[in-house]
Amino acid sequence: MELEEGVVYKVVNLTKLFPIKSGFFASLFGKEKNVHAVNDVNFTIGEGEILGMVGESGCGKTTCGRCLVRLETPTEGHMYFGGKDIAGLKGRELKSFRRDVQMVFQDPYESLNPRFNVYSTVSEPLVVHGVGESADERDDMVAKALEYSELKPPEEFMYRFPHELSGGQRQRVAIARTLVLRPRFIVADEPVSMLDVSIRAGIMNLMLSLRERYKIPFLFISHDVSVTRYMSHRIAVMYLGYIVELGDSEAVIKDPLHPYTEALLSAVPIPDPAMKHGRVKIKGDLPSPIDMPPGCVFHPRCLYRKDICDKETPQFKEARPGHYALCHFAGELPIQRPDDEEIFEIGVCESCGATIKKGMPHAKCDCNKLYHESCAVELGECPICKKKFQVEE
Amino acid sequence: MLEVNNLKTYFKILKGTVYAVDGVTFQLDRGETMGLVGESGCGKTTTAFAITRLLPSNGGIVGGEIVFDGKLIGRADFPTELAEILKEPLWLQEARALVERKLRRLSGPEEESSLLESRRRLEQERACVEDVNAILNDASLSEEEIKGELAAVVHDELTSFFAKRRRRRFDREIEEKMSDIRWSQISMIFQGAMNAFNPVYKVGDQIVEALLEHEDMTKDEAKERVLELFDMVGLERSRVTGYPHEYSGGMRQRAIIAMSLACNPQLIIADEPTTALDVIMQDRILGEIRHLQRELHIAMMIITHDISVVAEVAETIGIMYAGKLFEFGDIVSIFEQSANPYTIGLTGAFPSIKGERKKLIAIPGSPPDLSEPPHGCRFHPRCKFAQEICRREEPVSVEVAKNHWSLCHFAKEIYSGQLT
């Protein structure tokens, strides 16, 4: 299939299920169970674009990334790259595809072989794919790759072993290893989450400059929203295997459409003590990816839930130009933006745990507990001091 | 309530000595939350372990004092402290100051009650201090000879067979008294606390065990208290009979918090309490911590590498780098007008979801090896303001504003904005 102009990677209805091994009798009589790691995911990655993927642990973001480089074979769906459907590739074709895509892993302490020095680690892909005519040529390529990832001078690093390198340098070696084959697409799976703050910024700036210089598109996977915002052009928010929101990173961060994104953003700590922000607008825990909730996957935890939500699966619709959300009411909900600064927290509602802000109708009882309007009306009186509620501004 | 004065904690390793914590001073008031921030290996956990006296056997306090609630719970003993002083260039003045301080402390009558140590040990120590004092005041000796004599005393006290045995016995005595303080007055939430529960015992029973160990109560009372604690941290009461694997990560963290609250401590030290959790759970746990702390009026020390977590919960902040406290004080003041290049570097390297998207500036290089820390200021190889003096001299902590200390030669210039 020919891809549209400017699109490098296109993912259509990607689904990945992991079957759960059950006992012999259960396999005869019971229904087969699966972990729904990635569900019906659609997105494209443009030329020289960094697509950020955020979500909590267990939301399927890593599995999605691994599918894209074919470390996992998707259960369903198509992935178009370089004029081919990658989803079903096998054998020699798969190997040649893997030459074009590379992955950076999370933990540079484990992803490098401790018995390989930097030279053999970085030249290994060349050997595997039979690139380079002579040893000299390979030396050259390795040196260049090290230079690109700012390990200068390369001769000084080439014959060191991983234990002689700091965390940041190790991650740079891992990046050099992906660069040596001149890939056309890189998946970076939490590349900075194991690194210290002062080193992290260096690695992020390196990846940004690589994109700038070689126009390599990235899929940047991270659990940290602030890091993803810094890195990416567009952000995909994943929840329970679904992409619930996708759009320009500034649009997703500043003006989210999906209630889950709202909750996620409100939970991100802000490195500035002068700024207070709202409390999490979400209840309960992440449901199991084995028994998925019916209807909208987010409905059991959603504060804006309506009748339709547990019955019908919402469409992934374009609520604003280029900004998609998986929600029946995308664009219609009174979602709070992180930059709304008029939040003055008075306290927390005793009954539902939501923040009570200045100017919000609330009730106060004699035992100094606060309740917000709807909870106060529902309860009628304080369960402890039995004072009748009077709602005030 | 908690006072840490010039704390030095070193580890002995095959290669030599690791100067893990080197002269850290801070105070923590009742009901206050302090955040201790730093990169991995900067000594923040070691500081916590020194306070609770949980250091591994190759580590020890070699200088300074830790005072908790009027009690001296941690200090270096005199010969060790003297041995460290002898290695320094200004050893004579420092040794004199130390002896003076010790004599003052050891003669006070209130001393005994505020120390955890036995009378016999104090007597031993007083004798030793007096010996050293006599040597220092002996006018007939030259400086070199004084040093030699002192080294002989130190050697004798530290390495002779009987002195070692005596020391071990005293340490056991302190250990016993300390275990009364731990948990009932200072409790600690350890790093990776989610895995701190024993997987083969029920969570409720483990908390009951802790209560029975430290409080004078019957088993039924303890069980009742566990239920109360579960309510307090927002766990369902029915979960008391659950095993740790039946809990989610956030619930385990809550249970750990319940456990740390069990004996009504006055101080909780939380070492990376939310690191392994997702943002949403992290935010809830932080909310919970803040809420409980306000309600119960507990002092808290949160140790983390994530400056934004501290910005959310703490009132004071201490920023550590390479075993030293680089900046300490009121959190708003430090964030708004920092007086230390490391803090500026750290905050500049941190992305935020608020405001404009600005370019992050990495701090060049990487943290030093603490067995051979750089001369002078420990940050100078990575500092953009570094000058000749920084390579040569160790800076001292300067109070640039009320409740705002910074360890930098140019703290005042940076604070007032002359140096940018």
Overview of this protein structure:
The complex is a heterodimer of chains A (393) and B (420). Chain A has 393 residues and is of the alpha+beta class. Chain A is built from twelve helices and 17 strands. In chain A, helix 4 runs parallel beside helix 7, helix 5 crosses helix 7 and helix 7 packs parallel to helix 8. The longest helix of chain A has 18 residues. Chain A starts with 6 loop residues before the first strand and ends with a strand. In chain B, the strands form two sheets. In chain B, strands 6-7-8-3-9-10-12-11 form an eight-stranded mixed β-sheet, sandwiched between helices. In chain B, strands 2-1-4-5 form a four-stranded antiparallel β-sheet. Chain B has a domain of 60 residues. The model of chain B has no long low-confidence stretch (mean pLDDT 84). The longest helix of chain B is centred in the middle third of the chain and has 21 residues. In chain B, a hairpin with a 2-residue loop joins strand 9 and strand 10. Chain B is built from 16 helices and twelve strands. Classes of the chains: A alpha+beta (393), B alpha/beta (420).
Layout of SSEs?
The complex is a heterodimer of chains A (393) and B (420).
Chain A: E1 7-19, H1 24-29, E2 34-46, E3 50-54, H2 61-68, E4 76-81, E5 84-85, H3 91-100, E6 101-104, H4 118-129, H5 135-148, H6 154-158, H7 167-179, E7 185-189, H8 197-214, E8 218-222, H9 225-231, E9 234-239, E10 242-248, H10 249-254, H11 259-267, E11 316-320, E12 323-326, E13 345-348, E14 355-357, E15 362-364, E16 370-372, H12 373-379, E17 391-392
Parallel strand pairs in A: 3-8, 3-9, 6-7, 7-8
Antiparallel strand pairs in A: 1-2, 1-4, 4-5, 9-10, 10-12, 11-12, 13-14, 15-16, 15-17
Helix pairs in contact in A: 4-5, 4-7, 5-7, 7-8
Chain B: E1 2-13, E2 16-28, E3 33-37, H1 44-52, E4 59-68, E5 71-75, H2 78-86, H3 91-107, H4 111-114, H5 119-137, H6 143-159, H7 161-181, E6 186-189, H8 203-214, H9 219-233, H10 249-261, E7 267-271, H11 279-296, E8 299-304, H12 307-313, E9 316-321, E10 324-330, H13 331-336, H14 341-348, H15 388-392, E11 397-401, E12 404-407, H16 411-415
Parallel strand pairs in B: 3-8, 3-9, 6-7, 7-8
Antiparallel strand pairs in B: 1-2, 1-4, 4-5, 9-10, 10-12, 11-12
